[in-house]
Amino acid sequence: MKICRTIESLSSALSSVGQQSIGFVPTMGFLHAGHLSLVEKCRQENDLAVVSIYVNPAQFAPNEDLNRYPRDPDRDIALLEKERTDLLFMPDAMEIYPPGYETYIRVEGLEAALCGKSRPRHFRGVATVVLKLFNLVGPQRAYFGQKDAQQAIIILRMVRDLHLPVQVRVLPIVRDSDGLAMSSRNVYLTPVERRAALHLPKALGNAAALIHDGVRDDAAIKKTMADELAKDPLVCIDYIAMVRLQDLADLVAVEPGNTLIAAAVHVGKTRLIDNLLLGDLSC
Ligand code: AMP
User: Fold this and answer.
1) Which domains does the chain have, with CATH numbers?
2) Which residue of 5, 8, 25, 65 is most buried, as measured by CB atoms within 10 A?
3) 35 annotated active-site
4) What is the pLDDT of residues 176-204, one digit of tens each?
5) CA-to-CA distance for 264 and 283, rounded, in angstroms?
6) Are 144 and 170 in contact (CB under 8 A)?
């Protein structure tokens, strides 16, 4: 696996690619099986698998965890070698946002919903870095996780709106054996917090069971989730939402094939998100 730490070395490594197809997986590192599921699919569907590891300062608010975000580059490199990744782009912060940097991408509307309410500049940072990485890597396909469903929907819209020549693939949520969606941030949880965090996938499971039984009404679905999350005082709800896939507008009833049920909670100092997708995210 070739490791590029500068834009210059990345473009020289990519200059000999020729007609080979490039698949791309952008990450913030501290890799887990969720990330690796994207790399594996990328490997299968393309001639070359390119992964980036970049903890993007533009998507963190000043009060968020940029400085303590978990990092373990040596372990990440070993995992990516094992997945037979061809190229790893691991730039310094300054490489991506040099002094004087002032251009940002905003996917208006979509960025303001769900997580955007409590993280108002987060998706501006995400869309900006993803577009920059697309420009630098030039992939035919890029791989994202349904775990961050709002992020995936925003990237899909950006790609459509800006006519970007990349196919976005959104892959299912990978969970630990206890049901918790894998996340680099799970490492912050103490054993007691981790037990409390399990109410989040449980709440979504309860919502799925209600829907399976024919319930469609948003209030009933959100109530079953809120009741589950209220079982542990360590869990503090940020939001529970039922929205339409295209515009993330609130729904009053499940629209089959077109609904995202999403929740964000704080457990101690850790913010966790999870969702249930009743539809398809792809382009
Ligand atoms: P991150 O490093 O958190 O920025 O995530 C990089 C990519 O991995 C994003 O597209 C995430 O949606 C995806 N991802 C994160 N967690 C999971 C998971 N548990 N299952 C599948 N994909 C995931």
Assistant:
1) 2-171 (3.40.50.620), 184-276 (3.30.1300.10)
2) 25
3) yes
4) 999 999 999 999 999 999 999 999 999 99
5) 26
6) yes
